[in-house]
Amino acid sequence: MWEQVREVPGDATTSRLELDGVAYDRVPDSGWTMLVAWLAGPEHLVRLPDDEQHLIRVATAAGAGTEPRTPADQEVIDDGIDEYLADAHVPGPPRGYRWYQRLPQGYDDLEKAYRRINAHLRESDPGGAAVRPGQLAPLVAVAVADLYPR
């Protein structure tokens, strides 16, 4: 599925893209958010080559600040995403891209959609028994299908 996602030109440093009058928000670098993107499907995603210089927050005895994310840092992030998705029986995305997800109708940012998905998880699994990605994926799929009716 990942290879079916349209690659578009643009600036990978932006958190929102507007393409043909449609808003797409950048998908954060996490297994959970990439699971949501996978479940939304390629018709709701676009990707850009990731040539951005990422910064990470650091804290030392001298104080807090930022420093450039190293290739090793990025590999740890990508490996974590791949492991999370593998537990949900989903292939990891190709590396080297920033992923953007179309905003569901009626939502003005992707964070609000994530909150709706989390609310659905609390409603459908009030005891919190589903904790592993493979257990969460079917519940998340129902919520994503509600956000993106086919």
User: Helical residue percent?
Assistant: 25-40%
Number of helices: 4
Main sheet? Answer: 5 strands, mixed
Low-confidence stretches: none
The total count of strands amounts to 7
SSE succession = EEEHEEEHEHH
Walkthrough of the structure:
By secondary structure, the protein is α+β, with helices and mostly antiparallel strands. It is built from 4 helices and 7 strands. The chain has one domain (2-147). It has a 5-stranded mixed β-sheet with strand order 1-4-7-3-2, with no helix packed on it.
Task: Give the helix/strand layout.
Blueprint: E1 6-7, E2 16-19, E3 22-26, H1 31-40, E4 45-49, E5 55-60, E6 63-68, H2 71-87, E7 97-102, H3 110-124, H4 133-147
Parallel strand pairs: 1-4
Antiparallel strand pairs: 2-3, 3-7, 4-7, 5-6
Note the main attributes of this structure:
about 150 residues; alpha+beta; 5-stranded mixed sheet
In a nutshell, what does this entry contain?
The protein has helices spanning 31-40, 71-87, 110-124, 133-147, and strands at residues 6-7, 16-19, 22-26, 45-49, 55-60, 63-68, 97-102. With 150 residues, it is α+β, with helices and mostly antiparallel strands.
